[in-house]
Design brief:
Elements (H helix, E strand, L loop, with lengths): L17 E2 H12 L5 H10 L5 E3 L5 E4 L20 E6 L3 H7 L1 E2 L6 E3 L3 H9 L4 E6 L1 H6 L5 E2 L5 E3 L1 E2 L4 E3 L3
Antiparallel strand pairs: 1-3, 2-3, 4-7, 5-10, 6-9, 7-11, 8-9
Ligand HQG binds next to strand 4, helix 3 and strand 5.
Length: 168
């Protein structure tokens, strides 16, 4: 639902929503399963990062963030904590300190309010390193931040001048 909805034969609207009935039918067809609304509700409620949400009448479902396809989530700018964290792999460090954080395949750069989340995110890529982002200074310079439904701080890019390596 975030990267290749067509792989199971569903389409999303421009805000990332899929029809719940169509999704269940497509999943069952594509994966030869027999899931129903209950299983989908379980996923929404128990997903480790609360990645998905229903709309108010639960007729639609979408991912809260992390898309690599072009989706308008309709997030409103929000004031972040003064410092945010980004976990990455040590091997990316030189490039990031040189050119800053960019969104790569995603729609935003992903940041967290706590170090532990950043460590877990970084570990996905290899030996982790945590970067401190001076979000306070970024806001003062006019950069916009958004907070996803599941608590991920998002921004378009972080220039190198706002980044420091966090040293325990
Ligand atoms: C790095 C997971 C070199 C960036 C997680 C990261 C997160 C650069 C990688 C969410 C760079 C992109 C996002 C530059 C950025 N030079 N490397 N200039 N700029 N990078 O996976 O932040 O499971 O797209 O540091 O929990 O790791 O999908 O982003 O290492 O919240 O819900 O390029 O994905 O959530 O990797 O992770 P990703 P991310 P989900």
């Amino acid at each position: 639902m975030r990267h290749e909805p067509e792989a199971i034969g569903i389409s999303l609207d421009n805000q990332g929503w899929a029809d719940v009935g169509a999704l269940i039918e497509s999943v069952n067809k594509a994966r030869q399963t027999d899931i129903g609304f209950g299983e989908l509700q379980d996923v929404v409620e128990t997903n480790d990062k609360q990645r998905f949400s229903f709309n108010s009448d639960k007729s639609k479902i979408r991912a809260n963030q992390g898309h690599s396809i072009n989706i308008y989530l309709g997030l409103k700018p929000a004031f972040p904590p003064d410092v945010l964290y980004h976990g990455t792999a040590r091997r990316f460090l030189d490039s990031i300190l040189d050119s800053g954080l960019d969104k790569r395949n995603r729609q935003h750069v992903h940041l967290s309010a706590d170090k532990q989340t950043a460590i877990s995110v970084g570990e996905r890529h290899g030996s982790p390193v945590v970067l401190l982002v001076d979000s306070y200074a970024m806001v003062r310079s006019g950069f916009l931040f958004y907070l996803s439904e599941n608590g991920v701080w998002l921004t378009d890019s972080v220039p190198p001048g706002f980044i420091k390596v966090w040293d325990k």
